[in-house]
Amino acid sequence: FTNCAITPELDVWWEGMTKEPPAEAIDWTGQPWTPGCGRKAAHPNARFTAPARQCPVIDPNWESPEGVPISAILFGGRRAKAQPLVLEASSWDHGVFLG
């Protein structure tokens, strides 16, 4: 998990995760946090992350010093307006650069 608050039980928490917030936590910046302190406990971009080695379809040689062949690069980001986060290109020529 990244940019989340940590509860006294060493669990992660972010706004909206539970009906009631914990009584106290360490916020995403490392500061003590309580529900009435006036700050968010977690960054709005808090999320779950996992090590690449846990990906069931990763190439077996993904850590090889020689590398592995790359047939595509996918990049995502957070956009509030104008274009959806995931967009399918009509062809490889069209999809070289979108946005």
Any key phrases for this structure?
99 residues; little secondary structure; two-stranded antiparallel ribbon; two-stranded antiparallel sheet; 1 helix; 4 strands; flat
Written account of the structure:
- The protein contains 1 helix and 4 strands; from the N terminus they run E-E-E-E-H.
- It has 99 residues and is largely without helices or strands.
- It has a two-stranded antiparallel sheet with strand order 1-2. A two-stranded antiparallel sheet has the order 3-4.
- Strand 3 (25-26) and strand 4 (32-33) form a beta hairpin.
- The longest helix is centred in the C-terminal third of the chain and has 4 residues, at 92-95.
- The chain is flat.
- The mean pLDDT is 83.
The total count of helices amounts to 1
Helix content: under 10%
Low-confidence stretches: none
Strand order of the largest sheet: 1-2
Q: What percent strand?
A: 5-15%
- SS elements, strand count: 4
Mean pLDDT: 83
Radius of gyration from CA coordinates = 19 Å
In short:
The protein is low in regular secondary structure and 99 residues long.
Topology of this structure?
Elements lengths: L4 E2 L5 E2 L11 E2 L5 E2 L58 H4 L4
Antiparallel strand pairs: 1-2, 3-4
